[in-house]
């Protein structure tokens, strides 16, 4: 194979940056359509003019027209007749695309990725300072779009797949079904989608969702109302290391949060203390290659993007932080578990494109 010349590499890289810029603007415009309800209005109305969309969504017609044209140019929306006068063109959501942009319970739901991307860019100037100083960027500084986008992205997995994850661990599955009813602590629960899913999948259990982010817990309590499991789920803005949580739980879970923590060993040690005799800690975190590799694939590339922009900065807050980052490998998780004093550690045989699962016990 002949190596590319410098001129060829230059041309290819310029093209790549151009395509990335197009993708960035697609994400930002998807965010606009998602947040302003434009896709919902299109789905409800069918073929729609810019004025009709503006009226339905409560926005200005000129903005509606420009957004519709951008969406059509990007191939996201279809237009009945592009040659028609601007105000008379009718736009529609293609079949299948509506599910990706609107169905928040679907495993294909993708609008949350746009929301997460916007959130990651929000504190960009703080991030630049953090690069220079070695400090971190607090989670709260990423705003509501971060915890809302993260919760929307993971919701379908929790609702459709969580029972299978836990069901693949007989020891945990049996305890969650047994009497007396199991106590579960869902640590770093965020907006509580995982807590609700556990309670729905296992009708006997009681679940305490615990998170240090107050804004997330406020939203979790709002989502709890009308869920049908209000009598078995509670949410607390608290530190799970508080002594009041010691040795109370048969199962403790922590989903996609260990890599964000400045002091993961301290946290795992605290969670170990929360377990009752015979209890298990289930950790779900990123599925990565065993070691750094240039051919690890697009998901790992995505993880590195999130890591630079969000996960590493929030994990660098405080004195002498671990600074794990999104690309947390299984040997790192095992090292943290051993340092925290867990006697048993295993990688669970659960298949998932995004996450790897671990069980730890005292």
What proportion strand? 5-15%
What sequence of helices (H) and strands (E) makes up the elements?
Answer: HHHHEEHHHHHEHEHEEHEHHEE
CATH class of the largest domain: Alpha Beta
- Most strands sheet: 7 strands, mixed
The strand order across the widest sheet is 5-4-3-6-7-9-8
Using DSSP, what is the number of strands?
9
Low-confidence stretches are none
CATH fold type of the largest domain: Rossmann fold
Q: Calculate the mean pLDDT score and round it.
A: 96
The CATH homologous superfamily name of the largest domain equals Vaccinia Virus protein VP39
Under the CATH scheme, the architecture of the largest domain is 3-Layer(aba) Sandwich
Distance between the termini: 54 Å
In DSSP terms (H or I, runs of 4 or more residues), the helix count works out at: 14
Write down the oligomeric state: single chain
Overall number of structural domains: 2
Helical coverage, percent range: 40-55%
Structural class determined from secondary elements? alpha/beta
Word description of this protein:
With 362 residues, the protein is an alpha/beta fold. The chain folds into 2 domains: 6-101, Winged helix-like DNA-binding domain superfamily/Winged helix DNA-binding domain (Arc Repressor Mutant, subunit A, Orthogonal Bundle), CATH 1.10.10.10; 118-361, Rossmann fold (3-Layer(aba) Sandwich), CATH 3.40.50. It has 14 helices and 9 strands. The strands form 2 sheets. The chain has a 7-stranded mixed sheet, sandwiched between helices. The chain has a two-stranded antiparallel sheet with strand order 1-2. A hairpin with a 7-residue loop joins strand 8 (344-347) and strand 9 (355-361). Helix 1 packs across helix 6 and helix 3 crosses helix 4 (61-73). The longest helix is centred in the N-terminal third of the chain and has 30 residues, at 6-35. It is globular, with a radius of gyration of 23 Å. The model has no long low-confidence stretch (mean pLDDT 96).
């Amino acid at each position: 194979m002949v190596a590319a010349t410098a001129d060829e590499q230059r041309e290819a890289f310029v093209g790549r940056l151009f395509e990335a810029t197009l993708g960035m603007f697609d994400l930002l415009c998807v965010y606009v359509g998602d947040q302003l309800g434009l896709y919902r209005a299109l789905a409800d109305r069918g073929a729609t003019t810019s004025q009709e969309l503006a009226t339905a969504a409560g926005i200005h017609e000129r903005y509606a027209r420009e957004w519709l044209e951008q969406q059509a140019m990007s191939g996201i929306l279809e237009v009945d007749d592009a040659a028609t006068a601007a105000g008379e063109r009718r736009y529609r959501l293609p079949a299948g695309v509506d599910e990706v942009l609107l169905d928040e319970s679907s495993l294909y739901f993708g609008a949350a990725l746009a929301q997460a991307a916007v959130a990651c860019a929000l504190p960009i100037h703080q991030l630049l300072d953090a690069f220079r100083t070695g400090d971190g960027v607090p989670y709260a500084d990423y705003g509501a779009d971060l915890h809302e986008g993260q919760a929307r992205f993971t919701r379908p997995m929790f609702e459709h797949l969580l029972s299978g994850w836990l069901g693949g661990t007989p020891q945990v599955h049996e305890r969650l079904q047994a009497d007396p009813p199991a106590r579960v602590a869902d640590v770093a629960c965020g907006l509580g989608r995982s807590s609700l899913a556990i309670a729905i999948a296992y009708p006997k259990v009681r679940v305490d969702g615990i998170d240090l982010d107050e804004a997330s817990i406020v939203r979790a309590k709002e989502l709890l109302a009308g869920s049908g499991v209000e009598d078995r789920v509670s949410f607390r803005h608290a530190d799970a290391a508080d002594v009041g949580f010691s040795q109370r739980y048969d199962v403790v879970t922590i989903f996609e949060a260990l890599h964000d923590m400045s002091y993961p060993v301290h946290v795992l040690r605290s969670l170990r203390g929360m377990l009752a005799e015979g209890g298990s800690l289930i950790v779900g975190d990123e599925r990565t290659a065993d070691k750094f590799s240039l051919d690890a694939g697009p998901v790992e590339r995505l993880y590195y993007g999130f890591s630079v922009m969000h996960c590493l900065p929030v994990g660098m807050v405080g004195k002498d932080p671990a600074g794990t980052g999104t690309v947390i490998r299984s040997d790192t998780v095992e090292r943290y578990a051993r340092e925290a004093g867990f006697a048993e550690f295993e990688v669970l045989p659960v298949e998932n494109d995004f996450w790897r699962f671990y069980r730890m016990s005292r």
